Each structure stands twice: as structure tokens, then as C-alpha cells.
Amino acid sequence: MRREIPLAITFITSLIIIVSFFIPHAPFGTMQEVSLKWYAIIAGFTMLLGVDSLIHMHYQKIKRKKSDWAHSLVLIVGFAVFVIAGTISGFRYGSAMDINSSFMYLYNYVIIPLQSTMFALLSFFIASAAYRAFRARNLDATLLLITAVIVMIGRVPIGYQIWHNFPAVAEWIMAIPQMAAKRGILIGISLGMIAVSLRIMLGIERSYLS
Amino acid sequence: MNIFERIEKIDRRIIFLLVAIAVLLPLIFKVRMEIPISEPVKKAFVSVDTLSSGTYILISVDYDPASMPELQPMYKTLLMQCFEKGLKPVMIVQWPLGLPLSIKAMSEMAVEYNRMARAEGKDTVVYGVDYCNIGYRPGGVAQIVGIGKEIRDYFESDYKGTPLDSLPMMNNIHNYDNFALLFALEAGSMGDFYVQYANARFGIKIIFGMTAVSAPDAYPYLQSGQIIGLLGGLQGAAEYETLMKKPGFATMGMTAQSWVHVLIVLFILLGNIGYFINRKKRRS
Lengths: 210, 284
Hints:
The complex is a heterodimer.
Chain A: H1 4-22, H2 28-63, H3 69-93, H4 102-133, H5 139-154, H6 157-162, H7 166-201
Helix pairs in contact in A: 1-2, 2-3, 5-7
Chain B: H1 3-8, H2 12-28, H3 39-49, E1 56-62, H4 68-85, E2 88-93, H5 99-120, E3 132-136, H6 141-146, E4 181-186, H7 190-199, E5 205-210, H8 219-224, E6 229-232, H9 233-243, H10 249-283
Parallel strand pairs in B: 1-2, 1-4, 2-3, 4-5, 5-6
Helix pairs in contact in B: 2-10, 4-5, 4-9, 9-10
């Protein structure tokens, strides 16, 4: 029964969602609405579980003095600081998201610079990787290289200065060959997703139970 | 090591240094370049610009600070366009870390517009009357489907906890039918769900503002008419600023991006020249 009941729940709920997509009237529509609200509530709780798991893992790392345990300490201190700032801001301003709150101050001067820096570093690595990897070793690589150069130049204003038709050529590459390939990939992914969903619905794919 | 071997193996620290210079110089000297307008951005701009005053528009802010340089300028320009046209934007957030960004830009643009409106003797915009932000709720796809019936089932209050019914502009707003279009600013896959449910099932018109890396994913939707406009990356944001005749961060950033792209192309060419000459030498 430990396996049969979850499998039955999966089959029934997925059937309700599929049927209600095509017949959005009662009783299917109502059943779908309830299922969606449950989903949203469960999604909220998964965030709490995530926080619990994260803190527990890093606490254990500090306790056992595992390698790089200092990083875990920074994480826990950072987490505590944000929780405290959020709570105080909530009491003081009615919402942690108030533009003048200490939480927003921390967000503006800690989260934004940290995340932006991490992402900005990519430009350096992409430049270096492009230089090292883009070699016209064969016909496929040459085609990729030429297309990449046209799109890279055509998608920035300097391309327009070099040759007025560069942006139009880049846009054509994006809208015709790129789009055709992308659509093929999307159709493939979608068919795969339908197959996997059917396997889960019918209880053939059970790895999510373990 | 001969010159061609050196060209093939340039130290990456030199590449990093040149990239930094190419980014910094145009930003420091505020160099601007003419921005050509692409058709997908033009379509997006016209779709918003032709809406009549008082029309509601749903803006989904689905990104975090990592994608902020590309998407925040789009969001700010769009808000300014809404305020100038008298449209009523309602902000919704699907990424937890996107909420503070959406509030920050919303507050900044309202202040900027009100300063301008006072100087020109126009009506100012007021939170809850002319624009509002209903914040973030977990649920993602379930919420996107649920809003098709009743927005209050998922968002009882705005980001400050004020009940939606207390906001005058939300009085008769219940679902997608009350919005002329959805402008989704996407750094991830939420846009796919908007197309699959909000558009396919409930028929709302959608415009995407996406990071440059995800914009190619949206071209099939653009061709099929499932989205009616597309802004891709910083270039898309710069084009929107140009159409609004308000050049800002994105327009300036595009000069830096132009120089970096040229630099990368030069490095690729140098790398290939070195590679071919050295290969020929090795073979002979």
C-alpha cells in the first residue's frame, strides 16, 4: 500500500488536471482550482523545508569542522542577519520591502553587488573561452564561427556602423535558421516530456517515490 | 616561441585586461552610438503605445540582480511609458529575489515621473490608484493558471500587505480578461508557462523582455504569434529607450558591449590565424 496509494493519487490528480484543461467546467474546473491552490501552499512549505535543510547541512559542517567550514559560517551569519533585518523592518515599516527599510538597504548593498559581480565575471571567461575554443577546424566549426561572428557584430550598434545591413542579417539568422532549429528542439523536448509524464501517470516511472 | 605561436596562446590575463578596458572606457566617457531598431522591439513598443489611457497592463518581473543590467532598463522604460500614456501597470513577481528590484524601480520611476509631471503641470501618479505591485507568491505555474480565474485566490494583498480590495485601481480587476496585455520580463523559464497557459488558455496578449541568452528561445513564439513583441538583452532595452526618446543606461551600455564584441571577434580571428599558420608549419 505504501507504493499503491501515492501511485493512485498521482494518476487521479494528473487525470483531473488534463481533463480540466479541455473541460474547464464543474466539477473538473472546481477540482482543478482546489488542486492548484494546494500546489501553491505546498510550494510555500517546500521553501521552509529548503531553509531547514540548508541550515542543518551547514550547521553540521561547522560542528564537525569539515573543509571550508568557514564558508558555512558566513552563510549562517548572513542568513541570520537577513532574517533579523527583515523582521525588524517588518515591525518598523509594516513591510520588509519598504524602500527605506534595513532589509532593502542590505539587499541594495550586499545582494545586488554580489550577484551582479558573479554574473559580470562571465564576460571575461566568455571572451577567453571564445578565443581558445572557436577554431575553424572543420566545416561545421567554420559555419558556427561565421554565424557567431555575424550575430555578435550584427546585434550591437557598431555592426550597424560597419555595414547598415548587419543587423538585418543577424535578425534573419535569429528568425529563420536559429528559430527552425530551436523549434525542432522544442518539439523533441515536448514529445519527451509527454512520454515521461505518461510514464509517471501510469506508474511505469516510479523513481520519484524513492 | 615565434609570433604566431604567441598569437595562438595569448595569456588570458591580457584578454581579461583588454575586456575590462573595452567595458570601462565607453562607460566612463559616456560614449553613445546610434541604435538601430529591430522589428520585434518595434512591435512591442507600438503594442503598448497604442493602448488607450486607463488600460491595465500586467508586468511580470521574473529576474534577480544577476540579470538586472539587461532587464531593469526595460522595466524602467516600460514603466515610464505606462505613466506617460496614462496606462495602469500592475506588477507581479515570480522570482523571490526579483521583488525588491521591482519595488525599487517602481518607486524610482514614480518619483521621476511625478517630478516631470509637476514641472509640466500634468497629473501625478499615485500608488494604488495609477499603479501597484502585488508582489511575490510561491506557486509558479499553478498561480499562472489560477490567475486566469481570480487573481485574489493567490494575491489577497499587495507587497506591503494592503488588501487588494483596498487599492482603488484593483476594484474590478479579477483575471487576465481585465488586462490588455502581459509584459513578461524573463530571465528563466517562466515565460514558457505564460505562453502555455496565460496565452494558450486565456488568450492574453504577451510581450517578452528577455536576457540575451534566453531571447533565442522566444523566436518560435514570436513567429507563431503567441507573443506579439520581443526585447532581447541590453540591445532590446536600448532599442526601447531609443523608441521612447529617453536614452539611458542600456543605450550607454551598448557602446561598451559593442567594443567587447569587436574585441572578442578580433581575438577569435587572431586565434585562428595563429592556429592555421602553426598547423601549416607543423605539417611541413
